[in-house]
Amino acid sequence: MTELQVKEGKAPFKISSIDEPCFTYYKIIGDLLNGKPPVVVVHGGPGSGHEYLLTFSDLWTQYGLAVVFYDQIGCASSTHLPQKAGDGSFWQEKLFQDELDNLLDHLKLRDGPGFHLLGQSWGGMLSAAFAARQPQGLQRLVLASAVASKKLAIRGVQLWRDQMPPDLQKAVNEAEQKSEYDSLAYKQALGFYNKKHVCRADPFPPPELLPALRHLTEDMTVYRTMNGPSPLTADGSMNEWTVISRLPKITAPTLLYNGEYDTSHDIAQVPFFELIPRVRWITFPGGGHMCHLEGSLRDKIIKVVGEFLTQK
User: Fold this and answer.
1) Quick one: how far is CA 185 from the chain centroid?
2) I need a labelling partner for 233 at 20 to 30 A (CA). Which of 35, 36, 65, 245 fits?
C-alpha cells in the first residue's frame, strides 16, 4: 500500500473583471514526480468543493497515481465572489476553463507524463469541454455522471420527476409556478429525490457528502446563479449550455459512467457515447449520482477508474 502524502497550496488566479487578488485552493495526494500521470479531479455543483470526491485518493494508494483536487473559484477554500451573485454573464464555462488552465500551468502538469482528467457531474461537463480543445498533456478522460447538454439534463430530471409520487410532483410544480422553494412540501420532495437519485447511500447523507452540502448552503452564489434553486429546478445561466458539437474533437481515450438512477440520466449520456471517438460507457446497477459514495459501488468505481487510467 502506497504511503499517503498530502500537500496543500493556493494558485493565484487573475480574473480581468475582478479587482481583488483571487486564488484557487488545491490539495495533492501522492507524488507528482513519480513518473506517472497524476489525476486532476474536477468537482461538481457548481460550488460543491472537492471534499466529497476524496474517495478518489484511493487512486494513489491502490494504483500509484497522484491525485490533484481543487476548489473552483467562488466556493469552499478558494476565493468567494458574492458580489457576482446573479451575474449570469460572469459565471460561464470559460471562467472555469481559464481556472483549470491556470492550475495546470501553476503545477507544471502539461509536460513529462502529462495528466489524466476526471470530472464529476458539472465537473464532467467542464472536463468534456476542456478535453475537446485537445490540451497539451491530457492522457485519459473520465466523465463521471456528466451530461452532454443542460437541456438533456433537464429532460432527464423531468423523467425522474414524472415517477415521483403525485403529491410530491404537485409540490414541485407549485413551487416552480410561484418561485417559492422554502415550503415544507417542496423540501420533502427534494429529500425524496436526493435519496433516490442524487446519493443512494444509506444512511443519507454519508459523512463524505456533508462538506459539499455545507458549501452549497453557506454560499449559494455559484450554484444558484449557474444552476438554480435545487437539483429539481434549473433556471440558471447554464441552461443553454452544450458540449455536443465539440465531442468529436476529444482525442483522449474516455471512460463514461453513470448510475441506474442517476440524476444524469442515460439520455444525457448518449451524445458522449455516440460522438467521442474512443469511449467506453458503464451504467452501474442500483447507482445514483454519487456512485463513488454508495456502498459496494465505491470499490467498483475505484477499480474501474484505476484500471482504465493505468491500462497500457
Assistant:
1) 28
2) 245
- Do the strands 67-70 and 23-29 form a parallel or antiparallel pair, or are they unpaired? antiparallel
C-alpha cell at 216: 452549497
13 contacts: CB under 8 Å, gap ≥ 6: 22, 23, 24, 73, 79, 98, 99, 102, 103
Confidence class for position 2, pLDDT limits 50, 70, 90: low
Question: Regarding beta strands 23-29 and 39-42, do their DSSP bridges make them parallel or antiparallel, or are they unpaired?
Answer: unpaired
List Cα–Cα distances, 159 to 118, 125, 169, in angstroms: 27, 20, 11
The gap between the terminal CA atoms of the chain, to the nearest Å, is: 21
Q: What is the arithmetic mean of pLDDT over 133-139?
A: 98
The 10s digit of each residue's pLDDT in 141-170 is 999 999 999 999 999 999 999 999 999 999
Q: How far is CA 102 from CA 26, 70, 160, 280, in A?
A: 12, 12, 38, 29
Task: Please give the Cα distance from 49 to 47 (Å, whole number).
Answer: 6
Quick check: helix, strand or coil at residue 262? coil
Question: What 8-state DSSP symbol labels residue 71?
Answer: P
Rounded to 5 degrees, φ, ψ at 12 are -55, 135
- Residues with a known catalytic role: 121, 262, 289
10 Cα distance to chain centroid: 20
pTM (2 d.p.): 0.98
Amino acid at 215: H
**Ramachandran angles phi, psi of 202, nearest 5°:** -130, 115
